[in-house]
Design goal:
Blueprint lengths: L1 H19 L5 H10 L3 H12 L5 H20 L6 H21 L3 H18 L1 H21 L5 H13 L10 H14 L8 H14 L3 H17 L3 H4 L25 H17 L6 H17 L1
Helix pairs in contact: 2-3, 2-4, 3-4, 4-5, 4-6, 5-6, 6-7, 7-8, 8-9, 9-10, 10-13, 13-14
């Protein structure tokens, strides 16, 4: 009996040791974040693996994922709870900064930029404006220094250029914003994510610009040469909309951009996004919420 008890105790100890020394699994963390959207469980998992990180690269990968979780959790804090939101985004910024200080990665810089932007938003328009250039520089680092071609970072650039005022106050430019959003949509993960937010943002930007088909065709032809001549990714993608001139064709369309207006394409994007959602057997609650936003907005423009 004593022998049996000792054997069981040894097995339990071995299992505990194996659990504590288990290698960090980034795919498991990303599944919790993207597929299950269980941010608290992901954060618990990351906390449990940080101490046993095998090297700086792995430690940095855990840290930026922690920043991602904390930032996303903080997004759900009510807007009137300013102190709590600032604390959460500040923690996300610290984690992302630790990540890039430990080992530089495009994801580390992306989430650092996102946290800085959120803090600016909470502190008001003027503070948000002051954070714009530092955010852009970090995203430029992601796309240019690492040549990451990261969909989420194109999305950030698309928002910045769309929401900021133009010269001389800032660098806002609706045409660049749309090109960045087009690149975001063309590089997004369509296997694990529905990307409804990306579709809605692009549709709304196009609707607001409101170019007719003939203007789109002429402007796209102008963009084609600039797209071909630029070599720096963030400069090149300012003209991504006209990469093939007026014959540029989005993957969700049977006709080229020179054959339809901005608002016609905006409606088409919504129809496509709604169809994508309809194919999902068990959509997440967040996807259903975004789908409802798309339906409401689509009905308002048609």
């Amino acid at each position: 009996m004593n022998f049996m008890k000792k054997t069981i105790a040894m097995l339990i100890a071995l299992l505990c040791a194996l659990t504590l020394s288990a290698a960090f699994d980034p795919a498991y963390s990303d599944s919790l974040f993207y597929l299950e959207q269980d941010y608290e469980s992901d954060l618990d998992y990351l906390d449990s693996t940080l101490a046993s990180a095998t090297d700086d690269e792995e430690r940095a990968a855990i840290l930026w994922r922690q920043a991602r979780d904390v930032l996303t959790i903080t997004d759900d804090v009510p807007e009137d709870e300013k102190d709590e939101r600032l604390a959460g985004y500040g923690e996300a910024q610290d984690l992302a900064q630790q990540s890039v200080d430990t080992y530089e990665t495009p994801n580390g810089y992306h989430w650092l930029s996102s946290a800085i932007g959120r803090i600016g938003q909470v502190n008001g328009p003027l503070n948000s404006l002051s954070k714009a250039k530092p955010m852009r520089e970090l995203i430029y680092k992601v796309q240019n220094d690492f040549n990451a071609d990261m969909s989420d970072s194109w999305y950030v650039l698309g928002l910045l250029y769309d929401q900021l005022p133009g010269a001389p106050l800032s660098f806002g430019n609706s045409n660049y914003a749309i090109s960045y959003m087009r690149r975001c949509v063309d590089t997004q993960d369509n296997v694990n994510r529905l990307n409804l937010t990306n579709y809605l943002e692009l549709a709304q930007q196009l609707y607001d610009r409101n170019w007719k088909a003939d203007k789109r065709a002429k402007e796209a032809d102008k963009m084609e040469d600039k797209y071909a001549s630029e070599t720096v990714p963030t400069e090149k993608m300012k003209y991504y909309e006209g990469r093939d001139g007026r014959d540029t064709k989005p993957f969700y369309s049977t006709v080229s951009i020179g054959q339809m207006s901005d608002r016609q394409e905006a409606a088409m994007i919504c129809q496509y996004a709604m169809a994508v959602y309809g194919l999902k057997a068990e959509p997440l609650a967040s996807d259903t919420q975004k789908y409802n936003e798309i339906v409401e907005w689509y009905n308002s423009i048609t």
